[in-house]
Amino acid sequence: TDACLSEVEASGALNAFVHNTPDLAREQAKAADARIKSGDTPDMCGIPLGIKDLFCTKGVPSQAASRILEGFKPEYESTVTQKLWDEGAVMLGKLNMDEFAMGSSNETSTYGNAVNPWRRDNDNTQLTPGGSSGGSASAVSADLCLAATGTDTGGSIRQPAAFTGIVGLKPTYGRCSRWGTVAFASSLDQAGPMTKTVRDAAIMLKAIAGHDMKDSTSADLTVPDFEAALTGDIRGKKIGIPREYHMDGMPGEIEALWKQGADMLRDAGAEIVDISLPHTKYALPAYYVIAPAEASSNLARYDGVRFGHRAKLSQGDGVNEMYEKTRAEGFGDEVKRRVMVGTYVLSAGFYDAYYNRARKVRTLIKRDFEQVFDDGVDAILTPATPSAAFGLGEMNDADPVKMYLNDVFTVTVNLAGLPGISVPAGLDKQGLPLGLQLIGQPWKEADLLAQAEVLE
Ligand code: GLN
Q1: Ligand 1 center to 108 CA (angstroms)
Q2: Ligand 1 pocket check: which of 99, 102, 409 to mutate, most ligand atoms within 8 Å of Cβ?
Q3: With a cut of 0.95, is the ipTM above it?
Q4: CA distance 205 to 224
Q5: Domains in the chain, start-ordered, CATH in brackets?
Q6: Residues 156, 218, 296, 422: which is the catalytic one?
Q7: Which of 112, 174, 422, 428 could form a disulfide with 161 if both were Cys (CB 3.0 to 4.6 A apart)?
Q8: Ranges for the Amidase domain (predicted)?
Q9: 156 a catalytic residue
Q10: Residue 91 has pLDDT above 90, yes or no
Q11: Is residue 177 flagged as an active site residue?
Q12: Which residue has the least CA distance to atom 10 on ligand 1?
């Protein structure tokens, strides 16, 4: 913990940690020491972690990287973080992210962007660590902590993991409780581990998973021993390569790493098969209707009354002015865009044309996966992202859709509620990490982790 705390202290240039909790960390570390001495050693005991700012942590600022939550210190602890503290893990502080987890580059944060510790060969341009869990990815990749929590609504664990050369696991929807995690799009949001290795991901998932009375969508299933499943034996497993993920214009080196990944799985005894997920091309538009719709509803609670920031009012201002001014000041541009899009697609005149249609498309996407799994496929191998990390500011032109395109391989998994993991696959021509994604059957994270370990 002391070693991590001094790394965190010296890591200002990465802007990964946005709120440090050194006193709490030392206190937790001492308690963990005592616990270990007494012979009680849960897996996460004494492990120093960073926590994404989206998780409510009792008495510690939890702002979802938004100005509107300025000054908010929750009275309660999220279930996921509570489970970690119950096992004796140590919190070093809160990690940077895109505002309300909306973004793919960590550039929408009220704290300013986090920075990727990686650079292109012979080029010192600062790169994005990805988003929205950019601070988590940067911190784990730069060895500021041993692991971090992330959340993934449309790729926010897997894409930053790929951009920074670490492992990121989005569990099956319902595997981890969402209670106490600031809601973005409730039918898609899922917490998960961001770690240096697949084994660490297995250990951490076991700690944070499980049924929670406080989240009706958390599944009442026993949590397997994910680490015990890492046997290295994947013989006879059928791994599908979806045709539709061969995108036009994708760099040849991504295609090559993808093929190399398939070869590694085949060498370990898996069977590689060609599959089709025909509705893939509709996933991105469906996601960017459903996620903003749910966000516009979830974010209605930030009204200047219940949480955080309230705008200064002028003489004669009433409650409507208070809402308007607070939300105008408190939300950044991307959040405002999502609220506007979401409100529009849910409005009486457009509900059927957009929201309802997107929900139907979501069902078709889910069925694509079900069909493939029914045909005996155990998991699906794809690239995690269509490119390596891009330069900070590079995507910030007038067209937000350019940024959304980054999520093309990840959003399908959230729409279908499936588990997905990104594993470092190698480096591109410029020396930047790329990730491969494995998508598993619902609740089969143990198998998925075993397959992912073969790719390491
Ligand atoms: N980039 C996606 C978005 O902006 C995903 C975000 C996430 O997974 N939290 O919606």
Answers
A1: 11
A2: 102
A3: yes
A4: 10
A5: 2-208 (3.90.1300.10)
A6: 156
A7: 422
A8: 1-449
A9: yes
A10: yes
A11: no
A12: 102
pLDDT band at 397 (very low <50, low <70, confident <90, very high): confident
CA angle 156, 162, 167 (to 5 degrees): 85
Whether the CB-CB separation of 62 and 73 falls below 8 Å is answered with yes
Atom of ligand 1 nearest to the CA of 131: 1
pLDDT digits (tens, 9 = 90+) for 242-291: 999 998 888 999 999 999 999 999 999 999 999 999 999 999 999 999 99
Select which of 78, 104, 109, 132 is catalytic: 132
Q: How many CB atoms lie within 10 A of CB 129?
A: 34
- Distance, in Å, from the CA atom of 328 to the CA atom of 323, rounded to the nearest integer, reads 8
Q: Quick check: is 52 catalytic?
A: yes
Q: What is the pLDDT of residues 399-427, one digit of tens each?
A: 888 888 889 999 999 999 999 999 999 99
Residue 231 CB neighbours (<10 A) = 9
SS (H, E, C) 259-285: HHHHHHHHHCCCEEEEECCCCHHHHHH
In 174-251, where does DSSP find H-type helix?
Answer: 198-208
DSSP-derived letter for residue 176 is: B
Tokens read off for 23: 């006193």
The ligand 1 atom nearest the CA atom of 188: 8
